[in-house]
Queue: 2 jobs
Job 1
Amino acid sequence: MEHGHVADIDRHVRTYVLVFVSLMVLTVITVGIYYLHLPRPAAIALALTVAVVKGSLVACFFMHLISERRLVFWVLVLTVAFFFVLLLVPMLTSLVDQARV
Amino acid sequence: MEIPYTVEARPDTGLTSGKIGIWLFLASEVMLFGALFATYIMLRVGAPEWPVGATILNVPLATLNTVVLITSSVTMVMAWASLMRRDLSKARMFLWATVALGGAFMVIKAIEYNAKFEHHLYPSESTFLAIYFTLTGLHAFHVLGGMVINAYFAGPGSKLWHTNPQWLTNRVEHAGLFWHFVDLVWIFLFPVLYLL
């Protein structure tokens, strides 16, 4: 990213505008899902899917992940793996506690 | 002594020290917010009843805050793009715009908090409100931190442009990575706390 050409930057800016419009549309969809009053499991699945798409757009384009070096990806892969461990350990612990009772 | 690899990338990683540093910091931030999201899930799954956020919280104000924060991400990335085009004054303008939008987010958040306090809805009132104030409060501190960093680069920190423009460009990019992360966290907080 350090030595970008002006034409490259113009292309980047056009992408940023497109991403911005997409994020606005997805925000409207996020709120719209709530007003559809879907069953809770469906609403949760749909709202989180839209949030993942929005988050991916921010990470890929605003944070330049799409053109980032491999080392950054490995740092993130490791982080995501630890995040799931963090998420699963308390859940497994509570399951083990329930099995004991 | 000069800090190594501020402008040129390290040959082994292909990254500047600042770039790898900010990504490692963001990794630690993922774990911080991740721990709180995990707490939220455990509390919600374990609760006999859980309110829909919209019945307690203000969805229109939170939607407005989402729009404000996404717009601030665009102004932030435009500040970096302006520096890449070697236009310092435009970059500073976009940085100040980002600071102003961050300020707008904080004012809207304060209005929301104030409305809750007026109705005696404090963190001690319920588990839902406790996790709501913890998550949004921590996030708001991050917005405040980002505003201070961006104001520094828009103000006194921009002097670096006259001695090492590429270093300032890189530093603004790294500040932007933090700011976009804060935006990303809000993208998840908004549906999780307000709509589900």
Job 2
Amino acid sequence: MITVTLAGLAAFAAVATLSGWLARQGAGRIETSVAPSLVSVQQLSASIAEANAGATAAFLSQTAGEEDRSSRLLYLEALERASAQTETLAGLAGTDEASHDDLQALSVALGEYRGDVEAARTANALGATTPDARLRDALGRSEGEMAESVAAVAAQNQQRFDDNEQAGLLWGIVAVIGGIALTAFLLNLHASVARRSRRRLNLGLTGAVVLMILTTATLGLALAARTVNLSNAESGGYDAIVETAAFQTDLYTVQTQNGLDLLQGTQEASTTTSDLQRLGEQADLIAASADSNREQAVAQQLEARRQRYGDALLEVSANAEAGLTGGAIAAYRDDGLQAFNGLNTTLETVVAENREQFIDGVDAAAAVTRWLPLLNIVLPLAAALSAAVGLQARLREYS
Amino acid sequence: MAGPVTAPAGAAWSRRTFLVAVGAAGVSAACGLDPNAGSAQEYDLGGTTQLTILNWPSYIDPDGDAGPGTISRAQTDLGLQITYLDEYTDNYDGYDLVVANALNQPVPAYDIVMPTNWLAAQMIAASDVEPLPLELIPNHVNLDPQYMTNTWDRGSRFQMPWQAGITGLAYNPALTERPITSFDDLFDPALAGRVGIIGEMREAVGLAMLANGDDPSRPTEAAADAALQRVMDGVASGQIAAITFEDFAEKLETGELAAAMAWSGDAFSLLRRRPDIEFVIPDHGAIRWFDTMVIPRNSANVAAAGAFMNYVYEPANGARITASGNYISPVIGVQDELRATGFSELADDPVLFPDASTRNRLFTWGGLDLDFETTLDDRFNSML
């Protein structure tokens, strides 16, 4: 009986430890590489789109006479951020070859993109006949191969998140079921021993039962807490980051397209109105997912800044439709860019708030699994020792 | 340290001085600003009603004949007990002697301090400040976006600008006998020994960088080093006779200097007294700086600090501060407020409210590696 009991406890310890170790490894990978990667890839997408908006605005202002320095800075800094985020992602990709291939392709494309923008700037300064051709090449590149690389890296990281989120869960369920069965077995054994013994309470077996309950409960609760924390982090933080990044990308696309339309003289108020309506709907989604006073305050600020941006764009399109190209460009360059910067940086604040929420959730998930492998060895071994002591005592009593 | 005060009284010469001749209260009255402006809106202070503010001297509208100043009104409107100290005299002393000491206490002595943008950037990087309680600052939406794009605090989550200024050039045409339009002009041998520069490294070096064709908003170590060397050579040769702070105005006024680097707010005041003196934003551009409001780490009164920041970001209150100090307001709506209250002269001033073209020529120091920047500081300060 001792052998069977100890073998059962050893098997349980092995499965529980494996489960705890896998869970901790998975949560650790999410904490140290997957979660930062997920955030970085969303920001990378936004940075590229922001570079587009800055490059287009700088180009347009240059065409109108004087390059707007804040737009040029917006472009340069966004491009630098994109490069830094690409490097960060490469550093976090570990041995994932597919991610490395995509990031390398993106890195090359970023260099070509920069070359196109600079060539367009030079052509514009020199008064070339079609100076915007290279700018369009750059924008096309960002919406084509660069966007594809970013999407591929995002999908790979999402898969890594899902895989690591599940890590250790199956073994954990097996361990919990085994733990319950083993506890029941020990209780039954205790009852059987007690029936044949002078003592009603076998301290060793009782200790083993208590330790098994503790181990099984710890493992079950830790895995449940990890799952809940990761799920909350994903729904409360990461999904909001994705939502906000989508808004950012859409905003930059609207801003870029407005600049291009002004260059071509194809600005239309109806397009502007539908763009603004779409941005409004996205802002509403962000406001709806704000789950703290602080996030709600930022969402309110976002709405106010979005309305200012809308007013500025409507002024641009009204001027353009009235044939006042100079007025339209001035409105785009002055109030339009200021309103864009206000909305853009407020979106950064929204992202920062959600990033903290996401990282906090992931950290909490990692924290609850940190001691699991150790506990899952120590507690079952203690249970085995306690059971052995209890059964030895019964044997001594019998002999 | 001074005990609780109700409000700063009177005005004194300082880096941020204005209105010696007119007086802040007089201007407020003249421009029709309601001394009781600013709503008595209720704020959730989270139980804290104490607030200690450390600001530069003479940088806020004081109590006067026209009515209570911003601090007094904030005390009444917000129900706060405000200790207002105007002892922040420069960023080095301010940080080393006051702010750093405060940060080493379990609870810092100040709830709001006003470091200049570059120092705020360093404090944020060092986690020396609390995140702003945005839920208590709905007027954050009134922050001018041009102050929100700094790479070190995009979206302005850790600081809000208090006031901004321009470091350009001022000169007395009667003494220079020529227009001064570039930092290079300060090196005209005809002006030897009659030229002054500002004693803030980032502004002096930044302006020299602009003259050299470099961009101080994206500085490189080589460019900053070359610019500093140029300034140091100018001092060593005697071309540059004085390294000044707010006293540039007095030295220009007395004729001790013919041309000098100048702060826009003090220059604004000087030009009122001496319309023959010129203040220019050089062709190559000028330096724009701003002082910030930050909440030191572990402040016990974060909510009260947030309420005060919200208060001064109401355009009516921001207009009073601008009318008093004559520096650039970062608050959207202040220009309209000034115009609506009948003080169009201020509202239309291109230095107080630069247009897009002027803004395009203003550069804010972008920051370098901290160790290198400290070395530059040490070399520059060795000349003081």
